[in-house]
Amino acid sequence: MAGARMNLWTRKLLIAAAVATTSCWAVTGSSQETTAPETPVEPTTAAPNSTAPADNATVAADLLDVLNVESPMAESSTTESAPTESVVPESSAAEVASELDVIPLPQRPNAIPPPEAPAAGPRLESIEVTASYRSENVQDVAGSAHAFGGRALDKAGVTGMQDYLLQVPSVSLQKSGNGTARIAMRGISNVNASDLGYGDGSPTTGVYLDDVAIQGSGVFPDLNIYDLSRIEVLKGPQGTLYGEGSMGGAIKMITREPSLNEWTVRGTLMGSQTQQGGDSYDARLAVNIPLWEDHIGARIVGTKRKTGGYVDYTALNRPDADEEDADSVRGLLRWQVSDNFQADFLHLQDHSNKKQFPVVEPGHTEDLTNSHVEDQYAKTDFAINALTLRWTLPFAELTSVSALYDTDKDMRRRTPVLQTLVNGQFLTLGLGQPPDIFSNASTRVITDLNSFSQELRLVSNGDERFDWIAGAFYRDRSQTFDETKREDNIPDIDPTGGLLSGLLGAFYPLQGEQEHGFGDEAFTQYAAYGELKWNVIPERFEITAGLRYFSEDIDFYFDSYLSGVEAFLIGSDPNNIDPETQTVSVHVKQRMNSKGFLPKLSASWHFNADHMVYATVSRGFRSGTSNILATLDAGPAIIRPDYVLNKEIGTKSTWLDGRLTSNLAVYHIDWKDIQGTVVGTAMLGSIPLSNFGHLDNAGDAVAYGAEASVAWLPIENLTLLANAGFNDGKVTRSEDPTTVQKGAKLPNMPKLTLSTTANVTFYLPFDLNGDASATLSFIGSQYAVFEPAPQKDALGNTIDYGDFTVPSYALLKASIGAGTDQWRVQLFADNLLDRHAITSVSGPTVQYTVTTPRTVGLRLSYEF
């Protein structure tokens, strides 16, 4: 009997706890879902699906169910000691509370029949995302996520990452002159000033086209993508589900699916002119073809673009030399084999040819000139072939993704290696600025990256007490390098008619070629992952736990053969000279295995359908990478992986019947074994060289900040968006023998990022719809590399290594258009204020990449 009494009182306390917990929800009430008319409100965060909050009796029942406690009134008495206890099966929690005489259940103020829902009004557009491989509203994701709808991207004429990433708080983008993009999310970025395409360090942001990861061991191309369904930007480590390279976040580009029943054609033509620059044009076309009704359909997308230049290469007498040609074709073939089985085949071919780089020398950001005579270019071919199979099982969806992608790049850029060495020694010795002897120098690098990946993933059907994901992943990647360095100030001559060069061989000084190297980086990874979501109180309280295990091997070798001046320097060490051939060469070879776990734990609490708070802890990592400068004993041949641990809390809210959303997040990140450009020592044969920049693990750091996003629909035809991010970070441990100092600020981390957008729609005569938009983005100042600790020369003066600061800048773009549901004409202006902003600084000698000046154009689009 005592046990029965104790059980009774325990149940009373549990029910009282449920009642007390739900009392705070009662005052909030439920929201009414309305349907939004089509408005150009993208990109935006979206109103969540409207699910009325459970009443107190339901919550109490849920809590009892979670704790595996039966309703006491439903408990049957079968013991002889309590024959008089009645049995009332399946009593509700409310009846239990009443009959046990516990605390009365509080009632919502409007508990009596609620008034009828008001007529539907305008709402912010809802966007579904697949961040966790299961469709959910972006406002329900327990983490910082932004979504951009496909039609809004097309309407804005988006051609690259800058067109949308600058609208995401705590995100900055450094576009290098050679066409690559370096993304920093919350200050987590590839901390490296080199962009040769090999030995540069890997990206820290995962980039996905549908389910295919397209980042490699070098910086990735900024693809010209058209006809997307949406773009999802996920901030914070995504290591559990997405693995390597997503330690800062992930970007998912989701293509439009083929229709199996309808023909559609849509296209866009654009022409523009750039201030102080050339003309540009862009043509895009998407065609949907139903090949076999209800069974097979194809969607084919093609683009062709010519971008006018704006930097004058004066020594080459080439105005607007940095023009670019680009084209791409994409096809997605879908076969609906049965109601439960679907097969998709994706092919993408992307080509770009940058004929010179938009880089200028210090002091020439306004006149946009480059006085160097090197011919710089970058030709890139990028291809993806992917087969995705989906089976709908009774309990889950099984997905198989087999992907093969290939990137070929031929690039030539300015790299005055010898002049940099001379400058360093003059500065160290206190001799001032040296003569400009070897300034005309370039490196040509041809890279070929091939990657095969296979992923198997099971995703439960959802809407259960426990929802789960389980998967396995395999990747086999190889990248080859072919490198040639030249000093064109050294003439290729032999006054003896070839006798002297034949005698001295590699040591003959009058030859322009200084180095020819070959290398390969092989990468293999196995991983298994899982995620379990526990709906503790359905539609109220959720806990998600995930874990990924990975094991990877990296093999790297590089053989470099030296000539001319470099042969004299490297050959000062007899070990670098082949006694038989008298050639000078250096070789590095190393293998590294890394393995580890990437956990994630998050919890979210929904006060009601419109307001939620969340907390998450997640770990991410970046694979080890090769260091080409190990040939000079500057750092190891393979740099260890680095890791981040992110702690984040946030809130997402919807107000005013879906016309206002506000999201807020604060975070703290621990970053271990940072990969980045550091200043250390090197060996030119037997000659020690100080103050030499190379890739290495620099130490540890912390990053922290806060970000906010607001979307508001004050009236039916006006949408206002505002985003702000504050970020800071510093080095907490410096790893010897680098000169990165403890307390130094993290590179590529602007303290402040801001973005505001206003979209307005209006009606015009002849049944035309008009719209206008303006976006102002601000990126605070940042440093491109680790700022080295102050060094003194032989005379006691502080050494000036050059200014690698990226100053703050603001960009304004605007557009106005008119049309119908089928066609549209739009006048637009990018960089309306004509700011010559520095977006990237690269080395070894300082070069500035400058944003495109004011560009005004006309865009025509048609769809039928």
Kindly describe this structure.
The protein is mainly beta. It folds into 2 domains: 2-30 and 56-99, no CATH class; 162-166 and 168-172 and 210-415 and 450-479 and 510-863, Maltoporin, Chain A, CATH 2.40.170. Helices cover 10% and strands 49% of the residues. The strands form 9 sheets. The protein has a 22-stranded antiparallel β-barrel. A 5-stranded mixed β-sheet has the order 3-8-9-6-7. Strand 14 (324-338) and strand 15 (341-354) form a beta hairpin. The longest helix is centred in the first third of the chain and has 25 residues, at 2-26. 48% of the residues are buried. This is TonB-dependent receptor.
Task: Please give a quick description of this structure.
It is built from 9 helices and 42 strands. It is mostly beta strands and 864 residues long.
CATH H-level name of the largest domain... which superfamily? TonB-dependent receptor, beta-barrel domain
pLDDT average, as an integer? 82
CATH class placement of the largest domain: Mainly Beta
**Oligomeric state as shown:** single chain
- Structural class comes to mainly beta
- Using only C-alpha atoms, the radius of gyration works out to 31 Å
Poorly predicted segments: 1-119
Using the 3D structure, state the CATH architecture of the largest domain: Beta Barrel
- Largest sheet report: 22 strands, antiparallel, barrel
Assess the beta-strand content as a share of residues: over 45%
Protein name: TonB-dependent receptor
Region (Disordered): 30-53, 72-95
Main location: membrane
InterPro entries: Beta-barrel_TonB, Beta-barrel_TonB_sf, Plug_dom, TonB-dep_rcpt-like
